[in-house]
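Reopening this one. Same input as before:
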Amino acid sequence: MHIEVRAQDEDEDIRRYLLKRLQSEPRWSRHLKENPDLIEEIIANILKKACGMCLLANLQLEEFLKAPSIKQIRKILAKSSAYTVHHIYSDAIARILAQPSSTSELGVPVLSWLLCAQSRLTLRALQEALSIGLGDTFFDAENVVDAEILVSACGGLVTIDAAENIIRLAHYTLFEFLE
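Same output, byte for byte:
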């Protein structure tokens, strides 16, 4: 049996995901009623830059979801026409750094560990490594951070492979960007 996967199938999946996310945001209901073509404009803009990658689509979507007004959405649309993968990842890193310090102080070390690791890291190994601070002389199980919090602190840039219990960067292009 042979199954052919085409880019347009991926784009259609991403389109459905984006539409569902945009429609499910309560603060967007007013925007939708006032300007129904706006959703299609946002989706088309994101699809053009996502290159079939769900990660890039989601990172761009996060930027739009934070916009407080239609005017701000229009500014993002204008600015994002010149976006590259580098810009998208730079914005994601900026969002990580802009989080409250207790969260950003988790996100940056997670990305550093994943970038510098010589082999794949299990979730538990990373949690234990992060739980040991400067000056600590022993492992303290009470300092282990929950997996969901670690992933959230990284703003969508990391993922956990549940089957193997491995935590990794969400896409190989992210590794190339961070190097």
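So the earlier flakiness isn't reproducible anymore. For the record, DSSP finds ten helices and three strands in the chain.
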